[in-house]
Amino acid sequence: MDNDSPAKAILVVTITALVCSVLVSGAAVFLQPLQQAYADIERIRYIVQISGLVDSEAELSEFDIVSAYRDISLRLIDLESGSFDTDLDPQSFIDVSIENELQESVNIPAAQDTAALQSRPRWVAVYLVESDAELQRIIFPIYGRGMWSTIYGYLAIEGDLSTIAGVVFYEHGETPGIGDQIQRASWLAGWRGKRLYDEQRQLQFNIGTDSATSPAADYRVDGIAGATLTVNGVANMVRYWFGPHGYAPFMNQYLAELNL
């Protein structure tokens, strides 16, 4: 074939395009597990941070994260029955923002939709920290609307299933310098020791200012100046997820099983 012929030029371009396509596709397939592993490490980092197994302020290596995570049990809650589901693989439900072929979407009654979600998944994966078969903490995923975006986080509850052990917010699109203060370490530290429920298991948690001597102070986290709408969104998401349409039925049933 003549080197200067149009046919040869087209052939060379076609072969080059095919080779490049194969190389790009192969690279994508090869890198996908690495990208997923990196994403998992970042997710696990947040969970380990509030697990009580490490210093929450420490800089952790990937080895430290994986080592601590091995002591955390992944369990699946069926929010419709209020109990653990042992028939499905909880690993398939770790991302609450993605619905897979196994997941069912449940409509939220408008009167209870304080987190402005409209629907929630039926199954949610949670993380249990136990010592000598005794529950130390449960880490629950939470999410809901802020001022501009959906805010995603994890909230750790002590073994009494009322006292907050820690909280992190790992994804949001709130205003830089204002709404993003929900990730400030000093503000998150103010959550520790606050309670969700009173002695009658009525949800009392909120975000606002109370006198230190007020009984309500046990259930209140201080707000953030200038970020009222974002903070209200955070309060509303916590109140939804730990209310009657969220985790409360499971927690009450689990408390009865633990004889607490």
Task: Give an overview of the whole structure.
There is one protein chain. The protein has 260 residues and is of the alpha+beta class. The protein has 2 domains: 1-70, no CATH class; 72-258, no CATH class. It has 5 helices and 10 strands. Helix 1 (6-49) packs across helix 2.
Strand order, largest beta sheet: 2-1-5-6-7-8
Radius of gyration: 23 Å
Task: Label the structural class.
Answer: alpha+beta
Task: Round the mean pLDDT to the nearest integer and report it.
Answer: 86
Helix content: 25-40%
Per DSSP E runs of 2 or more residues, the count of β-strands stands at 10
What is the number of independent domains? 2
- Report the uncertain regions: 26-31
Largest sheet: 6 strands, antiparallel
Distance between the termini: 86 Å
What is the N-to-C order of secondary-structure elements (H for helix, E for strand)?
HHEEEEEEEEHEEHH
Helix count from the secondary structure assignment: 5
Strand percentage? 15-25%
Shape: globular
Keywords summarizing the entry:
260 residues; alpha+beta; 2 domains; 6-stranded antiparallel beta sheet; two-stranded antiparallel sheet; 5 helices; globular
Short description:
Helix content is 32%, strand content 22%. By secondary structure, the chain is of the alpha+beta class. The chain folds into two domains: 1-70, no CATH class; 72-258, no CATH class.
